[in-house]
Structures are given as structure tokens and as C-alpha cells.
């Protein structure tokens, strides 16, 4: 009989990955500490060692994970930098549709807050005077566009048999709306 492999150590990252898998596959309502413990093959109480505030800390960590988008700084017009950020944010949210509601309701904290500050700084350095307001507008557009695309895909319908939270025209619709937002920001 082969030797039994030791279990993979529990870590914050492993907990978040398992929670994202549950939220994306079954919905956020089905994410319980017990179900998460079962997925990790540990007692639910073991999770509290890594997330002492329990489920609230888990929800904060999931929101932070999908909103802490980073884009490498580069020399470019502010519109191109804003496009990079918007596309990266959309990609992160579309990768984990199960936690969009957290991204919409949890204020940025930790690395997510640092990402917002970096975005403001990059846009300001590229010559955009009202960078803080522009970032708020861009975030609102991205979150709204992702929510509309998920709704149109049927992904959020508990009775639907939908694998992906995407629609065929999603990329084109997003880019058309983003161009309109950037044009508006340029003229304001």
C-alpha cells in the first residue's frame, strides 16, 4: 500500500481559491463555512485560524481578491491607461462572477484600495487633471457593464443552465461603452 500523502497545509490563499470556486459554481448564497471546510477537507473551525472574523472576513477577502487589479505603469495617453485598467477590472470580475455583488457592495480595502490609488496616480501622471473622479466613473461603468452582461447571459438565474457569465456581444458592447465613457471624461 502506498504511503499516505500529507494534506496540503491550509492557507489564506487556499481558502480564498476554494471559496471562489464555490461562489462561481454554486453562487454566493451557497458559500457557507461548513461547505468551504468540506471543500478544503478540514473542519470549518480551522478556517477561523486564517480568517478570525469568520464569514465577514471571507467576504472582505473575496471582494478584495477580485477588485485588487494591477496594471503595469507605462508611458501612454491617459485614455489608453484607462482602457488597460477597465479591461483588467472587467476580466477579473468576469472570471469570478459569483462575487460581483461583493465587489459592488464592499468598499475597497487593503490591496484593492492600493490598486485604486495606483490607478488615480497613473492617470494623473498621464495628464488627466480629474483622475480621482475619472476612476470613480470608470469603476462604476465597469461594474455596471459586467452586471448587465451577467444578467443578459442568464448566469445569475438559479434555474438556468449557464456555464459562463458572458454573452456573444459582450466584448464589443463593453468597448463601445468604454469609448463613450472616455469621450465623456475627455470633454469634462
From TrEMBL:
Q: Where are the transmembrane segments?
A: none
- Keyword match DNA-binding: yes
Give start and end residues of each DNA-binding region.
Answer: 32-51
Pfam annotation, one family: TetR_N
Against PROSITE patterns, the record matches this protein to: HTH_TETR_2 (PS50977)
Keywords carried by this UniProt record:
DNA-binding, Repressor, Transcription, Transcription regulation
What does the record list as GO biological process? negative regulation of DNA-templated transcription; response to antibiotic
Q: Does the entry feature the keyword Hydrolase, yes or no? A: no
Per its UniProt record, what SUPFAM superfamilies does this chain match? Homeodomain-like, Tetracyclin repressor-like, C-terminal domain
Please provide, alphabetically and separated by semicolons, the GO molecular function terms listed in this UniProt record: DNA-binding transcription factor activity; transcription cis-regulatory region binding
Q: What is this protein called?
A: TetR family transcriptional regulator
**What organism does this protein naturally occur in?**
Herbidospora galbida
